[in-house]
What does this fold into?
Amino acid sequence: MNGTILIVDDDEDTAVLLRDSLRKRGFDVDAVTSGQAALEHLRTSPADVVVTDVQMAGISGIELCQELRQRHPDLLPIVLTGQGGLDTAIAAIRAGAYDFITKPVKVDALAISVGRAIEHLSLKREVKRLRSAADRDVPIDGIAGNSPAIRETIELVRRVADSDATVLVTGESGTGKELVARALHNLSPRREQPFVAVNCAAMPAPLLESELFGHVRGAFTDAKRSRAGLFVQAGAGTIFLDEIGEMPIEMQVKLLRVLQERKVRPVGGDEEVPFEARVITATNRDLETEVDEKRFREDLFYRINVVAIPVPPLRARAGDILLLAQYFLKRIASRTNKPVQGISGPAARLLMDYDWPGNVRELENCMERAVALCRLDEITVDDLPAKIQEHQSSKIVITTESPGELITLDEMERRYVRQVLNAVGGNKTHAARILGIDRRSLYRRLEEPRNERKDDAKPGEVPRAAVPVDHRPPTAPPAHPAAPPMSAAGGQPGELE
Ligand SMILES: Nc1ncnc2c1ncn2[C@@H]1O[C@H](COP(=O)(O)OP(=O)(O)OP(=O)(O)O)[C@@H](O)[C@H]1O
Ligand SMILES: [Mg+2]
It folds into this structure.
């Protein structure tokens, strides 16, 4: 970058001399003879550096610096000060000058100063460019994605990061729950404090209790000295209780008390110790169903579910599949020094069509494997796992028992509800949300019709369960391949896309 310079000096001879000398050194230079003329000139011809005399009629060099700071904050002024004008030099720097040169001006010294100013400017512009590119590519804290579903999650993370509220992060396995928990911590005022993660499924109740709440010396055979639990070790940071849905019921009671009183009692001790950490929990279970089925305490559920952050399954953020694939590809390729750049069209199609039951983790593993196998500069179909290559994009098909079988709307609805439930791994809350009904209606719609009782039907009405109920798994192929599947949407036969 050569840079554009504007010389401002009310002595026209000096102005022309400086202009010509700098031009000879390769700069693009203009000259004017007053501060007012400089401001006017800059309105139409932007410059990178202004070299100005101080003593001028009208606007002085110092006033010009102040004005430039307001109107052209990216421009760097250099001031020419008279003999011994240290005070002037200080005033100039305070007014926003980048440098000063004492008179009589040595052109070489001026050229060096101008060169440095221009280098400074180009670095500043580069940093700005990189920062805005980074802002665009990585939304927050490593959570990549641009689909409306993940943007909603990210928005929620941003909104609650600052608060101390207990958060319950829910979502299928591999959706990024731990990533969300870490983002909550990293965006919170607690970010300099510890983030302590505990997997509640990994330990039996007594061990978990001593891990979480600590123990005193002699509390059990191996307890040779007392030890603070993780709630206390987390200090003023965050404690992340992962897989809370698997916590043994006897621990649930204890945890509830701890959360209510914000104190822990170490195993074997009789004194309670206060803790400051923020509590974040996560589960891939449907806790409302766990509560209904008495496997999770309702009071604890309400205590941890102050703010719920659902992390959507990958199949509900179709727009993110390729974005994440490319994101992992770049990361893995640079880590492993492989020259893989992209994904071929047919491979991308397969990635988009697959339903990703293992969510983002499965996609990450898939890309890891693909980069390892890849022999060209792009991932091809051959580099993908067989199950993705062979995957048939799943269309919703309501199966019937025989080619001629016709079923009631009620029956079709029941089969469809079962199918959605199956597609979300039996999570009733999630299925109800997709179907746009509440969970109670979902249960009702799943109920088998009462045995064909003639008296159920009013005269002239078709009995409700006019066809046998299909007990085959909803995704099973039709028993009679030739049978036309029922179309629920009236579009392509058999499809409910
Ligand atoms: N949006 C995302 N952007 C980038 N990486 C992601 C994203 N979501 C998940 N990952 C990556 O996918 C992997 C699985 O994420 P994570 O461990 O947070 O999932 P999880 O929901 O806690 O899974 P599990 O229920 O199995 O514990 C991690 O390597 C994580 O970094
Ligand atoms: Mg996890």
